[in-house]
Design brief:
- A hairpin with a 2-residue loop joins strand 11 and strand 12.
- The two termini are 30 Å apart.
- By secondary structure, this protein is mostly beta strands.
- The protein is built from three helices and 13 strands.
- The protein has two domains: 49 residues, no CATH class; 246 residues, Outer membrane phospholipase (ompla), Chain C (Beta Barrel), CATH 2.40.230.
- The chain has a twelve-stranded antiparallel β-barrel.
């Protein structure tokens, strides 16, 4: 039954993505004299509420890992095959408050790892990332680097688990350990363009005290402070390659994706991840995984 549900969800998502929002034909607002009321009604009819894609939005029904995922509860037994979903949106707040034509945004990303092929189909891990950032456009037409924008922001990422510090378990074997993970980051991202190649160079640093707490004191050893991502367009095809890491510890990760449009606003999407930090709960576990499915933004 669960496979039927996810298949139905995929079909409905693909059909919905092909539909363009337009005024509902059963309503007539052309004769409404008050322009403000007419504009408000049109916005409501179009279901326009200002949110835009931030990162890729996708559902990947099949993801194959190199080994079984670690279980933090004795009763859980995770497989190396699972589904993965991501929702990522941003809201434009305003522009040019400082006189540099800069734009301000709030964003939210939600990624879930769903053990749909395991008994009872639990969500193995879910990560939540609210963030705020400001983006400064750069008109760099003379230099070789062709810098296009500079983004400065702050992000919080958590897996929503509470700390079990101080909890006494009568049976120590049933102690799952502390599954709480979180980190607060300040980051700067530089974006460059060379024809159809877009490059994003990101530098990040944890806020004092947030990456060295009891939840994950060594997380930056595995996530690293620097990442670079290449986005390349070739006709309808889009390829991405991301690499990040810590130059001192030698830990990090690489991720490659490929997408191709199927119908309007729906894409075939494939992803390969290898390294550390696929999810917060497994930030210090080396994982190699291939996933395939559909995305609804790039």
């Amino acid at each position: 039954m669960k496979y039927v549900l996810i298949l139905v969800f995929l079909v409905l998502s693909l059909v919905a993505s092909e539909r363009k929002y337009k005024e509902v034909e059963s309503y007539d607002i052309t004769n409404i004299e008050d322009k403000v009321s007419r504009k408000s009604m049109q916005k409501w009819l179009n279901e326009d509420f200002g949110l835009k894609p931030h990162r890729a939005n996708y559902i990947l029904p099949y993801g194959y890992g190199s080994e079984k995922y670690k279980s933090y509860v004795p009763t859980d037994e995770y497989k190396n095959i699972e589904a993965e979903l991501q929702v990522s949106i941003k809201l434009y707040l305003g522009t040019n408050l400082l006189g540099f034509d800069e734009s301000y945004y709030l964003a939210y990303s939600h990624i879930a790892f769903w053990q749909i092929y395991a008994e009872s189909s639990p969500f193995r891990e879910t990560n939540y990332t609210p963030e705020a950032f400001v983006e400064f456009p750069i008109k760099d037409k003379d230099s070789y680097f062709n810098l296009k924008s500079v983004k400065v922001g702050m992000a919080h990422t958590s897996n929503g688990q509470g700390s079990n510090k101080g909890v006494i378990y009568p049976d120590p074997s049933k102690n799952p350990g502390n599954r709480s993970r979180n980190i607060n980051l300040l980051y700067t991202e530089l974006s460059f363009q060379h024809d159809t190649l877009l490059t994003e160079l990101k530098l990040c640093a944890p806020l004092p005290g947030t990456a060295n707490d009891e939840d994950n004191p060594d997380i930056m050893d595995y996530l690293g402070y620097t990442s670079i991502k290449f986005n390349y367009f070739l006709g309808h095809h889009m390829f991405t390659l991301m690499a990040r890491g810590n130059f001192v510890t030698g830990y990090g990760a690489i991720e490659a994706t490929y997408s191709y449009p199927l119908i309007d606003n729906a894409y075939f999407y494939a992803k390969i991840f290898s390294g550390y930090g696929e999810s917060l709960i497994d930030y210090n576990n080396n994982i190699t995984k291939f996933s395939v499915g559909f995305s609804f933004s790039r």
